Amino acid sequence: MFKNKIYTRARIVFLAVTIILLAVIIKVFYIEVIQYKKLNNLASNLWSRNLPITADRGTIYDRNGKIIATNITTTSLVFIPNQIVDKEAVARDISNILNVEYEDILAHASKKTSIERVHPEGRQLDYETAEKINSLNYDGVYLVKESKRHYPYGNLLSHTLGYVGIDNQGLSGLELNYDKYLTGVDGAIKYFSDGKGHRLDLEEVYMAPQSGMNLTLTIDLDLQQTVEKELDNVIDMYNPEDALILAMDPNTGEVLALANRPDFDPNNYKDYSTETINRNLGIWKTYEPGSTFKILTLSASLEEKEVNLFEDHFYDSGSVHVENARIKCWKAGGHGAQTFLNVVENSCNPGFVELGQRLGTERLYNYVNKFGFGTKTGIDLNGESTGILFSLNKMGPVETATTAFGQGISVTPIQQVRAVSAAVNGGELLKPYVVKTVSEPETNTTIVENKKQVLSNVISKETSSMVRYALESVVANGSGRNAYIENYRVGGKTGTAQKVENGVYLTGNYIVSFIGFMPANDPKIVVYVAINNPKGITQYGGTVSAPVAKNVLTSAIEMLDIKPDLEGMEKEYRWYEDSYVKIPDVIGMSKSDALKLLKEFKIEYSGDGDVVLYMSPEPGYYAKKGGTVKLMLTK
Predict the structure, then answer these.
(1) 486-506 pLDDT, tens per residue?
(2) Confidence band (pLDDT; 50, 70, 90) for 360?
(3) Which of 46, 171, 203, 266 is most buried, judged by most C-beta within 10 A?
(4) Residue 502, SS3?
């Protein structure tokens, strides 16, 4: 009996010891294998320190691979407070170098923390300042690499690109909208210290930063530079309150150029007001469009077969009465008897009131919505406005009449450009965009790609063709003649919009605009120019904005490889304009016969003989009277 009890107790003790040993083994296994990584990291954090290295933001390129936003390397100041022996001396010397308060630097040096970034006083230091700090050789004072955003072209495309803050985060424009792609992963230099923060003599570990992804834009840098130059000229000549130019591919929705005045330098954004840096006028500004809006009324009237431009006639006496309102034409006394093609050419308000009345309130309102007014376009930029429209139930006869010629509603430039693009591209309402691709920096693999997006079809191809014809006629024969380019086909429409302040239309204060496209038979670019209250000139879109648009379109010819087209409408030149005439074909003629046909030109000869072998410019082209024609002669 007694032996059995001893045996039982021995078994219990043995079992207990076995269980304890097994538990210890399991615990050791759990710690050494399962929790090793976690515990190792915790231990490492007790004696390792990381000096941060800022990652580069992704590079931004134009459509042709030219860099328009990149990074430069700067230096930032970091303290390891436990390693600083003489905090007062460090604070005194560094505050003198940085030209900041002694107490501020002393507070950084005295922080109860393992690493203290000296912010903002010690951020993004120039080379000279960094060298002065480095020469002090203070323990616990470190200089680390920091990436800083750099815009090599300064103010160019500033509102579209946006800017970044001191911590490299996007704050506006594409920098904000695509921040999650552009932002990289920071790296560090890892070193080791004891429990008191004193640095150990162990090898440092370098953890490389990872750059952000790159953006390729739809913007053409060369065209953008032309647009910026034209706006600078506008500011110098007319001193307007503001101005903008927007260019888009009407077939895809790709924005080719966008610039505003006033603008800013994103490298030094702190030097500008919040209003200046945050207002991208091309997508934010809302105003009455004026006569450029007539393109929509024209498109709707043609689509609904409410007008025949050649056979229907309208008599313009100078004004028209709608209920108790008298709506005037811009031309005193009116244009008299006209076809409706003449109404479009002359930008005759009473004629467009007639078109609005033929359509009726509901159909006109429906087309305003179909062309995308009153809603955001969805462009990939922040700060877009919706514009302001009448409610259908508040549109009476007067509101219908004024809407037909672009008064009483507010739109944005990007809405205008998108709507006109739909009117001339065959009827497709597109979603505009600025970023073409987002790509991985090392392999250049495309991560995101924006493509043409058709939202709806607003008019037929046949109607669009007729709209293009009418707007080409506006440039050849009407109010847009200052945008005419010899040997090329240009269409467009002028606009002179009265401004409203406190519900009252201002006198002598207009937004003058022009929207044009080329080639008129197959548009590859739409350009919109709007100038707010130009000084020292009669404020008409045809006299102020159309020549600016012409300069932009002329620059686009080579950039977009637009070929000459001699099938366009001929312009009838007025007495005060430089005249262009068609060059006759004199190839194969004798020198004397060629001279008779080319009497309006200066002649330069090359070669020997009496027969014309070659001529430049080629026959059929238009050249300025008094210009030079070169003839190559042969025997």
Answers:
(1) 999 999 999 988 887 766 777
(2) very high
(3) 266
(4) coil
- Chain position carrying tokens 């024609």: 629
Helix H or strand E encompassing 456: strand 454-457
Polymer length of the chain: 635
Q: What is the CATH number of domain 221-559?
A: 3.40.710.10
Q: What is the pLDDT of residues 93-124, one digit of tens each?
A: 888 988 988 888 888 888 887 778 888 888 88
Here the tokens at position 396 are 């009476």
Neighbours of 175 (CB within 10 A): 26
Give the pair of three-digit tokens for residue 476.
Answer: 């050849």
| Non-local CB neighbours of 316 within 8 Å, separated by 6+ positions | 329, 331, 334, 335, 336, 338, 343, 346, 348, 350, 351
Structure-token pair, residue 224 = 């953008």
Instruction: Look at residue 515 and give its three-state secondary structure.
Output: strand
Q: Read off the pTM.
A: 0.84
Angstrom CA distances, 633 to 166, 330, 585, 588, 630, stand at: 68, 54, 14, 9, 10
Concatenated DSSP letters of 413-428: HHHHHHHHHHHHTTSE
Crossing angle (nearest 10°) for helices 361-370 and 397-404: 40
Cα 303 to Cα 10, 314, 341, 455, 465, distances in angstroms? 104, 19, 15, 19, 11
Fold of the 580-634 domain: Trypsin Inhibitor V; Chain A (3.30.10)
Angle made by CA atoms 504, 506, 508, in degrees to the nearest 5: 165
Exposed/middle/buried for residue 196 (C-beta within 10 Å: 0-12, 13-18, 19+): exposed
Task: Determine the straight-line distance between the first and last CA of the chain, rounded to whole angstroms.
Answer: 144
Tell me the average pLDDT across 237-262.
Answer: 97
Query: If pLDDT is split at 50, 70 and 90, which confidence band does 227 have?
Result: very high
Instruction: Show which residues are catalytic.
Output: 291
CATH of 49-214, one of 3.40.50.720, 3.90.1310.10, 3.30.870.10, 3.40.50.1000: 3.90.1310.10
pLDDT at 43 over 70: no
Check if the beta carbon of residue 458 is closer than 8 Å to that of residue 367.
yes
Amino acid sitting at position 118: V
Dist. CA 221–CA 228, nearest whole Å: 10
Cβ partners under 8 Å of residue 143, min gap 6: 75, 76, 77, 78, 125, 130, 133, 134
CA distance 106 to 218: 50
**For residues 338 and 462, what is the distance between their CA atoms, to the nearest angstrom?**
23
The mean pLDDT of the chain is 88
What dihedral do alpha carbons 235, 238, 241, 244 form, nearest 10°?
A: -50
- The residue behind tokens 């160019």 is 156
Spatial separation of the C-alpha atoms in residues 162 and 314, rounded to whole Å: 49
